[in-house]
Target: non-reducing end alpha-L-arabinofuranosidase
Amino acid sequence: MAEQQLKAKVTIDREFKIGDIDKRLYGSFIEHLGRAVYGGIYELNHPDSTEQGFRTDVIELVKELQVPIVRYPGGNMVSAYNWEDGVGPVSERPKKLELAWRVVEPNYIGTNEFADWAKLANTEVMMAVNLGTRGIDAARNLLEYCNHPSGSYWSDLRRSHGYKEPHKFKTWCLGNEMDGPWQVGHKTADEYGRLALETAKAMRLVDPTIELVACGSSNANMPTFPEWEATTLEHTYEEVDYLSLHQYYGNRSGDTANYLAKTLEMDDFIKTVTATCDYIKAKKRSKKTMHLSFDEWNVWFHSNQADQEIEPWSIAPPQLEDVYTFEDALLVGSILMTLVRHADRVKMACMAQLVNVIAPIMTETGGSAWKQTIFYPYMHVSIFGRGTSLKPVISSPKYDSKDFTDVPYLDSAVVWNEEKDELTIFLLNRHLQDALDLTIDVRSFEEYKLKEHIVLENDDLKAVNTVRQEAVKPHSNGDASLDKGTICTHLSKASWNVIRLGK
Ligand code: AHR
Model:
């Protein structure tokens, strides 16, 4: 029987604008968890570390990703964290039981050191305050410590700790996943909404220039979703700038076709949260439009079993160390494209996390830093995905999977960087056996030329990278060609593609 020819088409036009992309859409996350901080960004005795103990090999990889913002210090950890434990002379800092992950927190790294690291890594800090065990007072004091220039108790304390200039952190999260019963200090939506509102008011009095993120649901499967969002916003709508979304994905049943379709669910999640925000906007007769911060997303399931076996109360054990497969990289590409297509409302997002903990970057203690499979789609979209998101009109054959119907084999997002005169087309072929015969109409970019066709492909969906061998890495030998405003290409089975045009 002749091999089936699967044909797909994308039409792109410079007038089909979705919205401007905030560079913070490509953020990430470092929590005091596992080996993210200790043994990740920080390893005092590593040969490649700075005098302060920051691994320069890790910093180089973070710079390769061009991460614009990093959320800190948690995560679940922040809900029982006393920020004061992490400032001042390191020798005087207490070792504390860290309740979220049941480890010992030595507090060698705290707010000031993380600000130093962020400068070295050329990134901004997205701070989170503890609304679990603490509240308004601790939050406004931390903000005064970080952002007030001088002449007050907390700002002068920062200066006495050697930081004369304020950190000027702009983006602040009002707690973390407060809807989750696992959270220390878990709250009902009304309890959280009231506390978030009053904390926001106090924080804005300290520094009116900050932007605030209220907690949405921990994931779309929470029984309180989306009532949590509605109630939280009933309280906070006029005082906050963003509402958060969190979601992790996994392929526990080994059903790749179904796994790669999970971004359809993510798309629905974003649409439901957007609709909920707009419902509250209408109810309040507000002129303000709420933006979204998808500040935790990734694949997380490979390490679940191993984490059950970790003994409590050690320092920086290897927790949540997922080793990612090629198919995980494909899903990560699709997640990033979903975010780009919602760039009008989703202004910030964080791949959770950045180093060692469900991360694109891994380290060996005393050894090398290396790239997981998911590093590559993240790097491509972060680097080439700056500008305006354009709506691709997609015509593609479809399939049904266990949980989804009408899944297009072709997934795509398009970014036009008008300043640099660059057009980037991101593409995923979800078909696991066949190539897609694709044409792309780019007639409205007639003065542009084809620059590069990057492909991430592998015959083994379960291929992984290790410190010694990079089995999954992209090449630039894609077969795209451009003639009279039409790009022709074959997207190989199960592949991630980046087609770049420019003048
Ligand atoms: O990123 C790991 C954890 O996932 C975070 O601490 C928490 O916010 C989420 O549940």
Q: What stands out?
A: The chain is about 25% helix and 25% strand. The pocket of alpha-L-arabinofuranose is lined by residues 31, 74-76, 176-177, 218, 296, 352-353 (CB under 6 Å). The CA atoms of residues 90 and 108 lie 6 Å apart. The first helix runs from residue 56 to 65.
